[in-house]
Write a structure and sequence with these properties.
CATH class of the largest domain: Alpha Beta
CATH superfamily of the largest domain: DD-peptidase/beta-lactamase superfamily
Strand order of the largest sheet: 19-18-8-6-3-20
Shape: globular
Number of strands: 25
Number of domains: 3
Radius of gyration: 24 Å
Distance between the termini: 25 Å
Structural class: alpha/beta
CATH architecture of the largest domain: 3-Layer(aba) Sandwich
Mean pLDDT: 96
Length: about 450
């Protein structure tokens, strides 16, 4: 366990404060703060509609490209995102404004803005198939996730698993899971790959368990987006005669996910003719949903954008370098106290000390995006990952606590601010409490950490 809490220059609590620990989703504090600082709170992601070929008398004799700019909100269910109908109607308005009536070619989803891999190489295999292990690409759909309905079958037989949303008719599913005894653990998991349209369910699902929704990753976000927009256009009477496709990892136009390394090369961006660009919500709104919902997908997107802003291209190794440079540019010494591998905190190779978190949070509190950053941090009891924390604590106290939680197996962390009751900024408490290698139940550890934070909030 490591703890540091400070009010100004006064240390209120300290224990192992320089010990580097796995921060889990507390890493999102660094990612979102750096994104606000580097990219600006009003930054927006752009999605470009463009074409290859020619456009004459309403006939596009070529392919329509949906060139993603990394927007993580397309078809997302988060509060900041536009509805899918609103998003697609804006895209179609771009086509209508240019007089496009018929597309002789295909609707192609282009994810090339973000380089592969989309998922962290240090993430655990068991996480990759779940929604929180989905990685962002240049063009996304529903946060590159997919939901399934799961119901128990007969004891010893396969549970009943049905795809819900989004529809992905190209996928081939193998159900190797089994229905377990009453009262047994739910160990159901899903394994997939970006190298082919295959997914396998494994593990056990209790025979007495009610039906529930299993949210998994979908490695074909750009392909799914093209499919849904193609169907939207067809329903609206704008015919795309060539169907839909995406750009494969090899850079080819791919209309069959079984054959990603064949076919013609996708048009280069320089050769495309622009029709128009549609923009995402402002970054500050995305950042708020990232921290309130502890959204790994949004956080990884923001992490990718750090390298884009610093180096003009996106890849994970460059983002790691960019993050360190941004922090050092804020006047923070990162040596022996900070190591960041991803944006979400899903990697167990991230290491940060409580002392570094406190130094960083102080910089953010005195920096130009302070108000946006504070607004992005939930309070206990709010509709967020903190909704059920400190249930019996008066609202007047809870509302002054602005913090981010972080948890995974054996890890529970809280870092943030406790605002002064009189609004005096100089009396704000900055704290970080990190626990690792915990074998006790998380609720038991959490109640102890809640008491520590409450005691700090009651400091005179």
């Amino acid at each position: 366990m490591g703890v540091l809490a400070m009010r100004g220059a006064d240390t209120l609590a300290q224990y192992n404060s320089t010990l580097k620990m796995v921060p889990a989703s507390n890493m999102k504090l660094l990612t979102t703060g750096m994104a606000l600082t580097r990219l600006g709170p009003d930054m927006r992601f752009g999605t470009l509609l463009a074409y290859s070929g020619t456009l004459c008398d309403g006939i596009l004799d070529g392919d329509l490209y949906i060139v993603g700019g990394g927007d993580p909100t397309v078809a997302s269910g988060s509060s900041c995102a536009d509805s899918l109908e609103r998003t697609f109607s804006r895209w179609k308005e771009v086509l209508d404004a240019k007089g496009v009536k018929t597309i002789k070619g295909r609707v192609i989803g282009d994810p090339r803005f973000f380089k592969r891999p989309s998922q962290g190489l240090s993430w655990q295999l068991e996480d990759l198939g779940f929604y929180y292990g989905a990685g962002p690409s240049g063009l996304n759909f529903f946060e590159n996730s997919q939901s399934f309905s799961v119901r128990p079958g007969s004891l010893g037989e396969a549970p009943l698993i049905t795809p819900l949303y989004p529809d992905t008719p190209w996928m081939n599913y193998v159900n190797s899971a089994r229905t377990g005894a009453a009262g047994s653990s739910n160990t159901l998991n899903y394994i997939n790959t970006e190298f082919g349209p295959f997914g396998e369910f494994q593990g056990s699902f209790p025979v007495n368990r009610n039906e529930y929704k299993l949210d998994c990753s979908n490695p074909f976000g750009a392909y799914t987006c093209a499919y849904f927009f193609y169907n939207y256009l067809m329903a609206a009477g704008l015919i795309a005669e060539g169907g839909f496709a995406d750009v494969s990892p090899q850079g080819n136009v791919r209309d069959d996910l079984l054959f990603s390394d064949v076919g013609e090369a996708a048009a280069s961006w320089m050769d495309l003719v622009e029709l128009g660009t549609c923009q995402s919500p402002e970054l500050w709104r995305i950042v708020k949903d990232t921290n309130y919902d502890s959204d790994n997908f949004y956080a990884e997107t923001l992490f990718n954008m750090l390298s884009q802003s610093c180096f003009g291209h996106v890849d994970r190794d460059s983002s790691i370098i960019a993050a360190s440079r941004i922090l050092e540019g804020m006047g923070l010494n990162t040596s022996n106290s900070y190591r960041q591998i991803d944006g979400s905190g899903l990697s167990r190779k991230n290491y940060v000390s409580p002392e570094f978190f406190v130094r960083y949070l102080k910089k953010m509190y005195s920096g130009p995006v302070r108000d946006y950053f504070l607004e992005s941090l939930p309070s206990p009891g709010s509709k967020s990952t903190l909704q059920y924390r400190m249930g019996k604590v008066p609202a007047s106290i809870k509302s002054r606590i602005k913090m981010k939680s972080g948890s995974m197996n054996g890890v529970l962390c809280f870092s943030g601010y406790i605002l002064s009751p009189d609004g005096d900024r100089s009396r704000t408490i900055v704290f970080s409490i990190l626990t690792n290698n915990v074998t006790a139940p998380s609720y038991a550890v959490g109640s102890i950490l809640d008491e520590i934070i409450l005691s700090l909030a009651q400091e005179p």
